[in-house]
Write a structure and sequence with these properties.
This protein has helices at about 15-25, 25-45, 50-55, 60-65, 70-80, 85-90, 95, 185-195, 200-205, 260-265, 270-280, 290-295, and strands at about 5-10, 105-110, 120-130, 135-140, 150-155, 160-165, 165-170, 215-220, 225-230, 235-240, 245, 320-330, 335-340, 350. By secondary structure, the chain is α+β, with helices and mostly antiparallel strands. Strand 13 and strand 14 (about 350) form a beta hairpin. It is globular, with a radius of gyration of 18 Å. The relative contact order is 0.16.
Length: about 350
């Protein structure tokens, strides 16, 4: 079960933001460290000390790309009475184990597709159930840059969310089973949320020396939605036009289809994408948030459905499920989050202001 949700508010410079973050979320940060320490050891025989050593190799790339990230991590570590390397490792957790499959299904609406003319972007987050115990919701008031509302794992400085300029971002894990020393994805997450336009957000991905692979789903209240599929070597942009944006965990760009490795590990990605597209095509009217949430709650191909549930036949580290779903109204700067599976129907509304 997810821990009770509360929103923490941060302000000041990067170090001051981190200091407050660490003090308030110390207990959840410790849970996150415990979770990933067990996962690294269980999946790859990597101790937490070894994980910290691996993470330190990303320091120069982070310093060159977004040095404020390191200031904020130092603040978090001091506030939580932990060492800096612990917080760095949480922010590099996707790079410690490159190409570990998790789920997630994303859907978005352009203004001409929605009943209220708003832009929507949402997704499920499919991971191990116990990770719900260390989820944080963070609001950041910035002196230089847009204000931010985001959902993260405690101790991490960037995640799914939106900003006061109406820019929103989500993530689908995609993989080509290789990485390099470069910018971790959670650091790119944060810089996208600092963007003032959607093209600025795209710059954050396109111009980075990317450590790994993935797909960021970006939206703007000005009426744009895109899936940015990337690898360490290249990227492609898939713009939504005549139908809702739908994306799961395989590459749709022809640039990467022959390199895709998740399509073997996570074959339900094709089923989920097909199901989302067909549900949208069968809906002949304009769409609203209720319809989008019904899509994210769908159980076709259960338990490997859009609303994913644990399969007891899988090994413990592969028993994926929907830990939460979220839907963002980029026009109103508001998000709804459903702790646990969205089929339970308990969504909580959180506004940036």
């Amino acid at each position: 079960m997810m821990a009770p949700l509360s929103v923490i508010s941060l302000s000041g410079n990067a170090f001051e933001q981190g200091l407050t973050y660490g003090r308030i979320e110390q207990e959840k940060i410790l849970k996150a460290i415990h979770f990933y320490s067990g996962m690294f050891e269980g999946m790859a025989g990597i101790s937490w000390e070894k994980a910290k050593s691996i993470s330190s190799s990303f320091l120069p790339a982070i310093q060159d790309y977004y040095p404020e990230a390191l200031d904020e991590m130092r603040g978090i570590s001091q506030g939580a009475n932990l060492c800096f390397e612990d917080i760095l490792t949480l922010n590099c957790r996707s790079e410690v184990l490159f190409a570990q499959p998790d789920g997630c299904s994303c859907i978005g609406l352009l203004p001409e597709q929605s009943t209220d003319g708003h832009v929507y972007l949402g997704q499920t987050w499919d991971w191990l159930r116990k990770s719900g115990e260390h989820i944080s919701i963070v609001k950041i008031q910035q002196d230089h840059g847009p204000d931010i509302l985001m959902v993260v794992e405690a101790g991490v400085i960037g995640g799914k969310g939106l900003n006061s300029n109406g820019i929103g971002v989500g993530l689908n894990c995609t993989s080509v089973s290789k990485g390099q020393i470069g910018v971790p994805l959670h650091i790119m997450f944060r810089t996208i949320l600092n963007a003032t336009t959607i093209s600025n957000g795209l710059d954050c991905i396109a111009k980075a020396k990317r450590a790994g692979a993935g797909t960021f789903n970006l939206g703007s209240s000005e009426g744009f939605l895109m899936s940015v599929e990337y690898t360490p070597d290249n990227f492609d942009v898939l713009m939504a036009e005549n139908s809702p944006l739908c994306h799961t965990n395989h590459y749709q760009s022809p640039l990467f289809k022959d390199q895709d490795t998740f399509k073997v590990e996570l074959t339900d990605t094709f089923v989920r994408l097909n199901r989302m597209r067909r549900l949208c095509q069968a809906h002949t009217e304009k769409y609203d948030r209720t319809f989008l949430m019904s899509v994210l709650s769908d159980h076709a191909n259960y338990p490997d459905s859009i609303c994913s549930h644990e399969d007891p036949a899988d090994p413990p580290f592969k028993q994926l499920c929907t830990v939460y779903s979220m839907m963002m109204d980029l026009t109103e700067r508001t998000l709804w989050i459903t702790p646990n599976n969205p089929c339970e129907g308990h969504d909580i509304k959180i506004s940036l202001y």
